[in-house]
Each structure stands twice: as C-alpha cells, then as structure tokens.
Design brief:
- By secondary structure, this protein is of the alpha/beta class.
- The chain has helices at residues 17-21, 30-45, 62-67, 72-96, 118-126, 144-154, 189-195, 202-211, 225-230, and strands at residues 10-15, 49-54, 101-105, 114-115, 130-134, 159-164, 170-171, 183-184, 186-187, 215-219, 237-239.
- Helix 2 packs across helix 4 (72-96) and helix 6 packs parallel to helix 8.
- The longest helix is centred in the middle third of the chain and has 25 residues, at 72-96.
Length: 243
C-alpha cells in the first residue's frame, strides 16, 4: 500500500551495532551515524513518532565472550553498556541537526541518560522527540532484537523497522553463498520460526507474533529506505501483519 503520507503513527527503528561501525566493522563511524540521523529527522518531519533501539556489537559481543569462557551475565552486561555508547553518539548527531532527543536506559545511569519509564517515553514521543532505548532490557540472556520487540509492544508501536547493513530483506537461503537464494516480499512469523530465516532471534519473533507487531527488514544503506518504509512503499521484506 502506498499513500502520500505516512501509514504508521509510531514506529520502532532497530539498529544493530554493526550498522554503526560502517566498513571498519568496529567502533562508531560518524558518517554512518549522520546518514542514519538524517533519515530519522526526515521521518520526524513526516509527523511519525519514532523510537530507536540500538545494539552494541560494534564495540562488544557478549555471546562471543561467553563462548570463550566469560560468565554469560557479565558478558551481557558489558554489551548493554556498549549500547549506551552508541545511543549517545546517535543522540549527539540528532541534537546537532535540531532534533530533540532523549536517551532512556534500562540500567540506571542518571548522569548521562534517563531511566526507562514507559509513560515518560510515550510522552516524549507525543511531544515530537526521538527516544533512544539503550542497555537492552536490562537483563542478561536477552538480545537487543528482543528489546525492540518488547519496547514496541510497551509503547504500542505499529511496526518495527529492522535496518540491516548490506542485507536488503529476508531470503530462503544465504544469498552470499547461494546465488539461487530467493528473496521474500512477505513472510509470516511462523515461517520465520520454522525455517530459521534469521530475521531476529526466536524470542523476539515470538513476541512480535503474540502482539501482532509487523517487522520490515531492509538495508539502511539505501538512503530513502527508512522514510519509504514509513510511507508504506515496498521496501525489503515484511514479516507478519497484512500483506
């Protein structure tokens, strides 16, 4: 469906940490942050309320450290702190563009961000501010994909925009290794779970399915994709919801 205006009133944008690293694969590429911030600003100018969930894999990967013998909870908490660094970088860039922004963290660190409070987050969105959710759910063993699904349900977002780096949708096989891989325009939640299509982890997918929250998976490197998704244009792959 395509209209002249946005088809969603409130969205959650999920950004992986790797997305913010750019070509280097590590750290924060400020040119990439600026490019994403420009798209977020354009979405706000459409009148769409937008919240952002950021990962931390460009700085620290808890699962990898855990596999090497580190205590899993400790490794995950370190990953949550990495997401805060990314959130502050994104906030700074948005503020420099004149976009009012609030960072809310699931682990309290009042000197640099607000604690996550659902009603306060919704109020910020209603006032036109971009809200960035950092430090995951505040609990180990849960991914930032699950955070995106949980926050989307809590703030009654209508869709999750899952921005990937170099991945333009969901395929029935890995397109990097299988040239015959077929891209889906639409796929149901249960097929994602049964076929292990790797959109997001199974906990996050199940949470979206239970709450009827569609997911749009697309490549954020295309400069208009975030805006186009909000306008209802065909972008990437839609998971769940109406076709």
């Amino acid at each position: 469906m395509t209209t002249n205006g946005p088809v969603y009133r409130r969205v959650v944008l999920k950004l992986s940490g790797e997305a913010l690293a750019g070509e280097s694969g590590f750290g924060v590429d400020l040119d990439v942050v600026k490019m994403i911030s420009e798209q977020i600003k354009r979405v706000r100018e459409l009148g769409v309320q937008i919240a952002v969930v950021v990962g931390g894999g460009n700085i620290w990967r808890g699962a990898r450290a855990s596999a090497q013998g580190m205590d899993r909870a400790t490794a995950d908490y370190m990953g949550m702190l990495a997401t805060v660094i990314n959130a502050l970088a994104l906030q700074d860039c948005l503020e420099n563009m004149g976009v009012d922004t609030r960072v809310q963290t699931a682990i309290e660190m009042r000197q640099i961000a607000e604690p996550y409070i659902r009603r306060r987050a919704i109020r910020h969105l209603e006032k036109g501010r971009v809200v960035i959710f950092a430090s995951g759910t505040g609990n180990p063993y849960f991914s930032t994909d699950t955070t995106a699904a949980l926050r989307a349900a809590e703030i009654e977002a209508e869709v999750i925009l899952m921005a990937k780096r170099g991945v333009d949708g969901v395929y029935d096989a890995d397109p990097r290794t299988n040239p015959d891989a077929r891209k889906y325009d639409y796929v149901d939640y249960i097929d994602v779970l049964n076929k292990g299509l790797g959109v997001m982890d199974s906990t996050a997918t199940s949470l979206c399915m239970d709450n009827g929250i569609p997911i749009i998976v697309f490549d954020f490197n295309e400069p208009d994709n975030i805006v186009d998704a909000c306008l209802g244009r065909q972008v990437g792959t839609k998971v769940g919801g109406s076709v």
